[in-house]
């Protein structure tokens, strides 16, 4: 019961943060630019002699770039909105009035986590749905498996959220932000290095990508999402930056889920044990 | 322990049900740490804390406890009404009871005209008042108040005193931590003094302690040697121009003190024994400020 009350108040607290609305405005700006760009491209194709097959692949790649932007915005917004929810309330003393109420500490943490999960779900649904809708209505392109893609992007956001919560039980807001953004950047670099491995046979860059994904699997989840959503032809012809050169396996998604649950368990344990 | 520093050791407090209990000590004495341990916010390095017969993180015990933290803060976008509804729900008060109790509590702390105002528009004193209301929303058996009059004007302080006494009258126990010794003195039934994490002494303020007496002396021609010589019968002395205040060890020593002053050549114009105030008692027990 306490966890649900905390989830409700945290959702309202998160929904009031300026960073969320900044991300929404940035997202709406992105949707506007994406829609206009898509419209211009369709219009240009109409006046050209580019074969329909190629037109579709170009527009599909544009959709994938749009979805990648949604993924980046969602992960960064998730991290920035949740970075001070534990550490900030400990520092300000706000947590004292909550942690002395008749509920276990895990209920506080899980409640806050659920509140943010709800907020992230709403953000991903709106931004992902808006991009997919524009792709369909303006460009006439459809992602291969949009639901799988949306769920994987959501998983990536929840992963970033959980890691942020975990470090938030240890470190100050600023340190926590630096650590989590650093980890996301590390995973980003590892993922793209692995993607570049396709240019040479047996590249050691694959190993770099795998190791970085084991340390922080966020980028691997996106690459799996891209694989699920991209047109198979565009993927196999390596027509876009998200082509399936080195696709993370299903085992990596299982690993990510276990990683997420372990981070949540550590966060609960450390929040329970620490002084407030 | 915090690092190498022992914040609290061997703390054992007996607080009788239905009394107002004052918790006193200089800065850094371990008062806040003790309260946080009793509330389960801080874990003891060794040993265990018990409150109402159970560990403080026992949910059933928490239901019986109210807490006003020092410098109360909460989500500033909530209104006073929303804040109390939230804390009432978190404390397990049924929704139908909250409908009546929330306006009653807001009225109790004198914030009815501000019930729909957001906390971000509240002054420090108003935040303390709404913080007090959230601590009482579930009618707890035991109420911890950490500096409840901080930021309040004299009328606000009087209101808090009245509320504390009302809580005692309904059978609740109030555990009060305040730096305002005059507030403690007129509000509390019993106090303990702690220093360096240990209880030094306790006092029942409902009874007069005949052995604790201070003397107000108006005197001329007083030498430093004469004042130093008073240490035989006094725990502390304070000289302000021609006014000397002496904390005597015992009422029995008053004739000796007067004889000593006269024998040292001082001209004594007034020699008035008084009951020792809590502040004088505090200075006597804790000693002069050692820069803590």
Overview of the molecule:
By secondary structure, chain A is mainly alpha-helical. Chain A has helices at residues 2-15, 18-47, 52-82, 87-92, 94-99, 105-139, 146-168, 173-196, 205-215, 218-229, 232-236, 250-273. In chain A, helix 7 runs antiparallel to helix 8. The two termini of chain A are 22 Å apart. The model of chain A has no long low-confidence stretch (mean pLDDT 89). With 292 residues, chain B is of the alpha/beta class. Chain B has 2 domains: 20-204, Rossmann fold; 213-275, Alpha-Beta Plaits. Chain B has a 6-stranded mixed beta sheet with strand order 2-3-4-1-5-6, with helices on both faces. Chain B has a 4-stranded antiparallel beta sheet with strand order 8-9-7-10, with helices on both faces. The model of chain B has no long low-confidence stretch (mean pLDDT 87). At the A-B interface, helix 1 and helix 5 of A face helix 2 and helix 3 of B.
